[in-house]
Amino acid sequence: MRDIGIGLIGSGYIGKTHAIAYNAHGSVFGGKAKLACRTLAEIDETRAEEAANALGFENSTSDWRSLLADDAIDVIAIATPNALHKDMTIAAIEAGKHVYVEKPLALDTAEANQIIAALEARTDPEQPLVHMLGYNYLCNPIISTIKAMIDAGELGEIIHFRGRHNEDYMANPDVPFNWRCSKASAGTGTLGDMGSHIISMAMHLVGPIASLCGDTDIVVPKRPDETGAPRAVENEDQAQAIVRFASGTMGALETSRVALGKKQGLAFEIVGTKASLEFDQERMNEVRLYEGSGAPGRSGFKTILVDTSCPDFAAFCPAPGHGLGYNDLKIIEVDRLLKAITEGARVPVDLYAGREIERVIDTWVLSAQERRWIDVGRL
Ligand code: NAI
User: Fold this and answer.
1) For a substitution probing ligand 1, which of 14, 180, 235, 329 has the most ligand atoms within 8 Å of its CB?
2) How far is the CA of 33 from the centre of ligand 1 (A)?
3) What's domain 137-320+350-370's superfamily in CATH?
4) Hey, what CATH topology would domain 4-134 get?
5) Distance 36 CA to ligand 1 centre (A)
6) What stretches of 331-376 adopt beta strand conformation (E)?
7) Contact 116, 89 (CB under 8 A)
8) Where is each GFO/IDH/MocA-like oxidoreductase domain found (predicted)?
């Protein structure tokens, strides 16, 4: 089997995480299929060359479109600001490349629909294209353990999901205006940036979200631009919603980029009729479980550490409780991509699921504007 060639576009925060994962994948997961870091595309030649050297790519370019015609590249990985995802994803699909695009899929549902239309126009049963989004938190081995518990009915019927993804990276009003504050570059604010992660987690564990009543808020209305002059922030700093899942389960979601003290605050609580559990990404190797069957005076939450019963964890380490880190989630995600290409396995979040997340976000924004409950299916 020949190596699977990667063309990576963007080498910022998440592009570097991609590169670490491509380079480390073989050491962790082994296997016959190998990934090859072919070409890195960046905004200019100097940046592209420096990043390619640092991140282990064979070639560099300032023209991402040159990746499309390169036969040595099988996968286009898109790690650029949100506004570029649509055109890059469609171009990759039209070139017949597998596509691995960072979250959120696009600026909104309308753009996501254009991507799906391109995919369906290109779909060839003889040569299926793998498409996957970078919702890496779903690849955490302890999340796989939680999902297995839910699927086996160990929590009983799930009656409530409360989830948040809060961080404080923009809590300081002096943090300059950047692409994440711009509607043209990012679309929504914290909703697309981190809200999309907790929405993906809620949907992964409890199923589709049927309706919601949302609210959004800009806390820091102006931030200094590159000259120091105040510039109006164009999208929300924090947002919350009450939701109903298609299963009938009640839920509450929130997201913030100005939640002082929260560094990686993706967390959730699930209440079941037999057991309840709590997870916090800041303690990403453990889950806290309360079983309703406990004897009076002997009941309480217990902490379960990730162990080798989860194959994704065992691939890293033979001893239980030796924690993984954020970058390891990307290595596991890349393994999902590789297995989808070589074995036809399912990916955690494909373009269709990515569009569903866009629908939830757009419904949330509309609900906040109109101050009422809205069915997600309406968009
Ligand atoms: P960033 O600003 O750190 O990096 C973006 C990179 O894209 C920059 O190096 C920039 O020069 C490059 N770029 C921009 N236009 C380009 C073009 N036309 N051709 C080639 N390169 C170009 O941004 P960051 O934080 O890496 O975010 C990128 C994407 O990744 C976003 O969609 C974001 O939502 C997502 N992301 C996902 C995370 C996750 O946990 N899965 C975490 C952080 C970001």
Assistant:
1) 14
2) 27
3) Dihydrodipicolinate Reductase; domain 2 (3.30.360.10)
4) Rossmann fold (3.40.50)
5) 21
6) 374-375
7) no
8) 144-278
Nearest in space to 81 (alpha carbons), one of 162, 6, 180: 180
Q: Which two tokens stand for residue 336?
A: 């999902």
Q: What is the pLDDT of residues 129-165, one digit of tens each?
A: 999 999 999 999 999 999 999 999 999 999 999 999 9
**Residues lining ligand 1, Cβ inside 6 A:** 9-15, 41-43, 64, 79-82, 84, 102-103, 134, 136, 193
Query: Above 90 in pLDDT, residue 379?
Result: no
Does residue 125 carry a pLDDT above 80? no
Each domain of the chain, given as residue ranges in start order, spans 4-134, 137-320+350-370
What mean pLDDT is predicted for residues 7-17? Answer: 98
Ligand 1 center to 113 CA (angstroms): 22
- Give CB contacts under 8 A, 24+ apart, made by 173-179: 173/220, 173/223, 174/223, 174/224, 175/223, 176/223, 176/224, 176/225, 176/226, 177/223, 177/224, 177/225, 177/231, 177/233, 179/81, 179/83
Asked if the domains 4-134 and 137-320+350-370 are classified in one and the same CATH topology, the answer is: no
pLDDT, tens digit, for every residue of 231-289?
999 999 999 999 999 999 999 999 999 999 999 999 999 999 999 999 999 999 999 99
Tokens at 201, concatenated? 């987690």
At which residue do the structure tokens 């080798």 appear? 308
Which atom from ligand 1 is nearest to the alpha carbon of 330? 41
Q: Find, among 20, 31, 33, the residue nearest to 130 by Cα.
A: 33
Residues 220 and 233 sit within 8 Å (Cβ to Cβ): yes
**Assigned token pair, 115:** 């991507």
Per residue in 48-77, pLDDT (tens digit) is 999 999 999 999 999 999 999 999 999 999
User: How many residues can be counted in the chain?
Assistant: 379
**Contact (CB, 8 A) for 351 and 357:** no
Query: How far is the centre of ligand 1, averaged over its atoms, from the C-alpha of 102 (Å)?
Result: 8
